[in-house]
């Protein structure tokens, strides 16, 4: 055990921040830590937008489902898959790159690069005593986010991250059991074992929801997932990707 592992194992989403703003040095450290994440073939296919304008933050909060902590935090970051600069590189090098940038593979590369960078940023922030909360709700209306952030073609806003000094901290939400996530040599797909493991996890999650500090409720993980997956959402994502110059082949 060391401080890095302790920071990782202590993670929980924070949704209640003080009004203390991050310093320029903290912001730079978080972004530079993000930049040290692994990147496929050195492509570095992401950008990070810090949102400080209160009107823009309020609009993003509305898009994300009126989540107050999108506005009330120390700093709000938006992580984007970004191949726009690579299109500029094509112009600089006088090389045709559009057909490559439009492939499914390059979309995956950009999304993975951004995700890796964001997790480095999260760990860096938490190691500084700050709290973080990922905000996937900005994908509720990608076209509106594009307008708010004035995004050029080939830039996709994937998720936000609220960062700040925690005003309060919730109980840590239990994750799936180790044996349910880790497979050795082959995928363990025995349905009865999986159902038993899920039932055990449901009991753990039920207890968590009943005793947590805010909004206690009777619920299970499979019940929650079943309700969520029973209806399709954000059906405009494919249209947005095409509009931004992806999936054209």
Automatic annotation (TrEMBL):
Superkingdom: Bacteria
Protein family according to the UniProt entry: Belongs to the flavin oxidoreductase frp family.
A family per Pfam: Nitroreductase
Every Nitroreductase domain range: 10-164
NCBIfam families reported in the protein's UniProt record: PRK10765.1
Name of the protein: Oxygen-insensitive NADPH nitroreductase
Claim: Flavoprotein is one of the keywords in the record: yes
Keywords: Flavoprotein, FMN, NADP, Oxidoreductase
Keyword Cell inner membrane: no
Classification via InterPro entries: Flavin_OxRdtase_Frp (IPR016446), Nitroreductase (IPR029479), Nitroreductase-like (IPR000415)
């Amino acid at each position: 055990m060391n401080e890095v592992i302790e920071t990782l194992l202590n993670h929980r989403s924070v949704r209640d921040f003080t009004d203390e703003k991050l310093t320029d040095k903290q912001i730079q450290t978080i972004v530079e830590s993000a930049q040290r994440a692994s990147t496929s073939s050195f492509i570095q296919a992401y950008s990070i937008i810090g949102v400080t304008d209160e009107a823009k933050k309020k609009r993003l909060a509305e898009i994300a489902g009126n989540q107050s902590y999108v506005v009330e935090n120390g700093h709000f970051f938006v992580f984007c898959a970004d191949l726009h600069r690579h299109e500029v590189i094509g112009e600089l090098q006088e090389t045709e790159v559009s057909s490559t940038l439009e492939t499914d593979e390059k979309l995956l590369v950009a999304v993975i690069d951004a995700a890796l960078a964001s997790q480095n940023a999260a760990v860096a922030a938490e190691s500084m005593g700050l709290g973080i909360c990922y905000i996937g709700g900005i994908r509720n209306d990608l076209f509106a986010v594009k307008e708010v952030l004035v995004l050029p073609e080939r830039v996709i806003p994937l998720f936000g991250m609220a960062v700040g000094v925690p005003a309060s901290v919730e109980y840590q939400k239990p994750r799936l059991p180790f044996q349910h996530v880790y497979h050795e040599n082959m995928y363990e797909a025995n349905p009865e074992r999986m159902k038993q493991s899920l039932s055990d996890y449901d009991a753990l999650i039920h207890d968590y929801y009943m005793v947590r500090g805010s909004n206690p409720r009777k619920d299970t993980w499979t019940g929650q997932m079943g309700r969520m997956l029973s209806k399709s959402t954000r059906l405009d994502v494919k249209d947005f990707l095409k509009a931004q110059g992806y999936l054209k082949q």
